[in-house]
Amino acid sequence: MTTRNWFLRELRDSVVNALSVNSATSVTSDVCIIGGGISAAMLAQKLLELQPSLTVTVVEAGARIFDLENRGKYRRRMLDYGENAWPGDFIADQAAGGVISRTMAVGGSALHWGGVTNRFSEEDLTLRSRYGLAMDWPIPWAELERFYCEAERRLGVSGEPSPLPEDQRSEPYPMPAMPLSHNLRELKAWAEQSGIPFWSTPQAKNTRPYDGRSVCMRCNTCEICPTGARYSPDFTFKQLLQKKEFALHDATLIRRLVVSPDGRRIEAAQGVARVRNGERMEYRATTFVLASGYCWSPHLLLLSASGKFPQGLANSSSLVGRYMTGHSFISAQIEMDARIYPGMNEQHSLISRQFFRCRSDVPYVRHDLRIWESSAGREPRLKDASGTYLFGDALLQDWRRRTTRGAARVRAYYDVHPSPDSALTLDPSRKNQWGDPLPSIRHVLDEPTRGRATRTREHITDLFERLARANNARILNISNDSQYLDHPAGGCRMGTDPATSVCDSFGRTHDHQNLFIVGSPTLPTGGCTNGTLTFVALTLRSATEIAKSARV
Amino acid sequence: MQEQRSRRSALKALGAAAVAPIAAAHVSGLSIREQGSPELDSAHLQAIADAVLPTELGADGRARVVDAFLRWIRDYREDAEMDHGYGFSRIRTTGASPASKYSEQLEALNRAAAAVKPGPDGHAFVALDLDARRAVIAGALKEAKVERLPQRPTGAHIAADLMGFYFNSSAAADLCYRARIGRDACRGLDGSEKPPAALNE
Fold first, then answer.
1. pLDDT band per the 50, 70, 90 thresholds, residue B201
2. pTM of the full predicted structure?
3. A391 part of contact set with chain B, CB < 8 Å
4. Using an 8 Å Cβ cutoff, are A339 and A406 in contact?
5. Which of A298, B41, B57, B174 would you label with A188, given CA atoms 20 to 30 Å apart?
6. Which of A53, A132, A109 is nearest to B84 (CA)?
7. CB contact, 8 Å: A182 with chain B?
8. Which of A122-131, A526-535, B30-39 has the lowest mean pLDDT?
């Protein structure tokens, strides 16, 4: 940066700060949490348990949609018309390139969440030391496992313990597993003929009344649960709002963080109230926590660049927005001799964690393996194989003929590792109404991952074929490798070395002592199964440290 | 004879049960005219339903499907936010009502029917027997390049929309499997480990 540019930027920052301070509505609390998703809900809840006198403010860019009483109606409109079951859960001009979900609302992506709460495994935390791949997480497995238990208690997880000794748990699941439907029983009997064990996938869905919420009614639409049996962060926020120490400022977009003159602390978070004509807001706190997910957390840090921090905040390592991660997947549809009634409980599945493990002396491949009921290839059709239109009884008879055998959808999420070029960057060509450049995400896998891609695919398709040996089964199709990474994470990875990570294992940024990052952005690698429970477990682990920080 | 009658009664019962969830959710006697769209001749729509829906539904069952279809059209909202859940990054909204094209399509069916067998003005299609109606509909679908049942009505053709509306429903799946699966219902967990009850139980 030239001296002139530096001077101009400093001047602009000074003017902006002065104007902001003079005209903004100011809110002060002990802890300011930026982002209102599942990590924020869990963090705020635990902080107020650890230190009931703390004042905690959650600031969320999206709206609050707390109308449980309308969810049956929203669900019906979704089923009948394909309408958004969470109306108004996005911000039109806040669109990131390459993002997995447009949801920006109190509750975040977990509003639409299917509720799957798988754990990662010890291998995920020790990739470097076991396999010479990616990096080790700076947390021992035994310690993370304790926070998995806490996360399961707080969310309300129903599950069946894995039969594998490596998956040993220190506490039982809070609730019995979701019962296997007739369909899943049939599919389990079929699949286990391959020698691979399967069991009920753990889920944050009530199999008995739990935490004031009802038991699952098997509505088959977990993305909008009309009964409240599937955990959703809005329930926690509604409970927290009963406490005078807690405040929720929704529809408020934080645009930048302001650092102290010495650069060591965050002094304020500045933003706009989107629903009050852009009223300027300024939040002051002892401790700031970014809980805005894998996209908007690094985005805010980059957006907060100043003359003193031209690369953005918490970015002395130049790794903010780097190592964006997740996992890839391959799916297949398989038909077999089994009486399957599609629609009994499409959201529930079988899982095997057998392939979470990989010996270190064989080619590396790790993945989960899931099985759902399916109606693939047996939907009603308008034309028969000869191209003749089918009407009335002919269509029904054709449909019945094609449903005498059952079908399953099988899928493996497999472990991939990001390159440092797997990045979130600011796109100056796309800005929101406030003039802020929007983020753009581009996933790039590291060289070892790319090198084993063919072998990984062969391994997984071999497994699909192994499953298909029983019950006269036949593979209907196998998908291409996914074109995007599912359950994305990263962008502010944790580590012990400030030169190669953004924050420590508790999410405290190496550069600013009162700034924490929690949840998905801190993951160095994305594992090979759904990430939400891990995001929550890490957040709960951070909470103790954040509570200590907020005492200062 | 006794056996035949029993079978017919059973089929009728099956059909009535299979359409019940649709009927329960909808009020009969609606017309598209009520929402300001072009008027549809309900007899014409019923004549299509009789040709494209299963006989197992019975006449009453098919009439209830037509009522439900009209209700769906009446309650359609243009420019409504569409589902954009996890994995979908594009915000989409619903378009114009599919019904805006139906009057023209019904007139075309009448013209095609009149070419097969001249009938009362504007009612040639209704006057055809079922096989002839199906032939006319097949020609119309071919002309409209409709290859698949739409998941929901699209306006590509009223006959395909009515068929997609019914055959993709939870009730139609129950009829196909002859079982009370109740895909779109909230059913509770009890008993889910067993096969669903037979439709005629």
1. confident
2. 0.92
3. yes
4. yes
5. B174
6. A109
7. yes
8. B30-39
- H or E segment to which residue A288 belongs: strand A279-290
Backbone angles phi, psi at A464, to 5 degrees: -60, -40
Q: State the pLDDT confidence band at A105, using cuts at 50, 70 and 90.
A: very high
3-class state of residue A252 by DSSP: strand
The total of other beta-carbon atoms located within 10 Å of residue A13's CB is 16
CA distance B47 to chain A (A): 12
Task: Check CB contact of B88 with chain A, cutoff 8 Å.
Answer: yes
Q: pLDDT per residue over A218-259, tens digit each?
A: 999 999 999 999 999 999 999 999 999 999 999 999 999 999
As a three-state string, the secondary structure of A434-466 is: CCCEEEEEECCECHHHHHCHHHHHHHHHHHHHH
B149/A contact by beta carbon, under 8 A = yes
Give the DSSP letter string of B120-173: STT-HHHHS-HHHHHHHHHHHHHHTT--S--SS--SS-HHHHHHHHHHTSHHHH
Give this complex's ipTM: 0.91
C-alpha–C-alpha distance, residues B157 and A414, integer Å: 43
Out of B87, B188, B189, closest to residue A100 by CB = B87
Tokens of A276: 């009050």
φ and ψ at A510, to 5 degrees? -65, -25
Query: Which residues in chain B are closer than 8 Å to A530, comparing Cβ atoms?
Result: none
Question: Is the CB of residue A400 less than 8 Å away from at least one CB of chain B?
Answer: yes
- The fraction of chain A above a pLDDT of 70, given in percent, is 96
> What value does the CA radius of gyration of chain A take, rounded to a whole number of Å?
24
Q: Are A369 and A196 in contact (CB under 8 A)?
A: yes
Q: What is the model's pLDDT at position B184? A: 97
Write the CA distances from A52 to A48, A288, A382, integer angstroms: 5, 18, 62
pLDDT value at residue B11:
37
Q: With contacts defined as CB-CB under 8 Å, which chain B residues touch A216?
A: 189
Amino acid at A258: V
Q: For residue range A452-483, list pLDDT tens digits in order.
A: 999 999 999 999 999 999 999 999 999 988 88
Query: How far A36 CA lies from chain B's nearest CA (Å)?
Result: 17
Chains A, B: CB contacts under 8 A, how many? Answer: 173
Half-sphere exposure of A176 (CA within 13 A, CB side): 8
